[in-house]
Design the sequence.
């Protein structure tokens, strides 16, 4: 199953150009949803105003080379490994889900745009597509059942769903129904395969159509914020925050009693 391109079989029922239009429509939905979100929250205006204000209190002028070095370091460390999540399960689950999703999306685009017109895809591309979906499921279900703040710190049951869960649930639905569709198609269970394909399409519409209401856009905001934070650190403006205290870190013995998990 892993090496079979599910979109090639689908192309015998749905023309390849329709699949391609669908992908383009999803990209437009991301742009539209994120744009609307930025207009509504005014977060980007705030972000740039704040950066301008902080620049005035910069202590060092950063050269283009220094700025590039800071940005590259932020991409390689803060963004690529989501270092904001510290060391532990939360970061591992996020990295699994993040790379899984990226691989799954790239795999989908390559299979749909290059290999749904009858050209046979080299087997490693469908394998990458399936592995991406499996990684997304591993990271996402781990987060959903065990790591979510409401579940791990507030002790709410995993099945309590709130609006903020739209993103992770739609993402998980895409990966899960994508895998189920591919499996049932390979096993020639055509009725089930059509059912899972329909659910796969619906979950994509919810994921990409729900950008405005979900946490989807964090994948654009977080990198921007990390770059700004590190540039402000390097030019000494520190986003107009006070410098770290030089007193020793003494929090008393109480801090050792329990793992910090009250977010
Ligand atoms: C394709 C890219 C990405 C995907 C698929 C993704 C996926 C997710 C998911 C599913 C969640 C859980 C959402 C929830 O609270 O319901 C999440 C949370 C989070 N993401 Fe991402 N993310 C991506 C990129 C990034 C990037 C680039 C950063 C930072 C540089 C980032 C930082 C975070 C943080 C800090 C959280 C909160 C984690 C927590 O509460 O445990 N994400 N992400």
Sequence:
């Amino acid at each position: 199953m892993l090496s079979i391109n599910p979109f090639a079989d689908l192309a015998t029922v749905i023309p390849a150009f329709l699949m391609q239009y669908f992908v383009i429509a999803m990209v437009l939905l991301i742009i539209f949803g994120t744009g609307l979100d930025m207009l509504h929250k005014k977060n980007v205006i705030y972000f740039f105003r704040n950066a301008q204000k902080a620049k005035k209190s910069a202590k060092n002028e950063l050269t283009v080379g220094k700025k590039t070095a800071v940005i590259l370091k932020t991409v390689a460390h803060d963004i690529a490994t989501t270092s904001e999540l510290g060391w532990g399960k939360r970061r591992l689950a996020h990295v699994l889900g993040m790379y899984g999703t990226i691989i799954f999306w790239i795999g989908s685009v390559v299979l749909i745009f290059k290999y749904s017109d009858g050209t046979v895809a080299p087997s490693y591309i469908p394998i990458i597509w399936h592995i991406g979906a499996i990684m997304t499921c591993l990271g996402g279900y781990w987060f959903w059942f065990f790591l979510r703040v409401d579940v791990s710190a507030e002790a709410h049951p995993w099945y309590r769903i709130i609006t903020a869960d739209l993103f992770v649930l739609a993402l998980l639905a895409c990966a899960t129904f994508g895998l189920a569709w591919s499996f049932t198609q390979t096993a020639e269970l055509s009725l089930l395969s059509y059912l899972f394909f329909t659910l796969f399409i619906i979950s994509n519409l919810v994921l990409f159509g729900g950008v405005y209401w979900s946490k989807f856009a964090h994948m654009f905001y977080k990198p921007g914020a990390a770059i700004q934070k590190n540039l402000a650190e390097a030019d000494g403006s520190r986003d107009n925050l006070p410098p770290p205290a030089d007193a020793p870190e003494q929090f008393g013995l109480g801090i050792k009693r329990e793992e910090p998990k009250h977010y």
Remarks:
- The CA atoms of residues 65 and 100 lie 33 Å apart.
- Residues 16-41 form the longest helix (26 residues).
- The pocket of protoporphyrin IX containing FE is lined by residues 78-79, 82, 84-85, 90, 94, 97-98, 101-102, 140, 143, 147, 164-165, 167-168, 171, 215, 218-219, 222-223, 226 (CB under 6 Å).
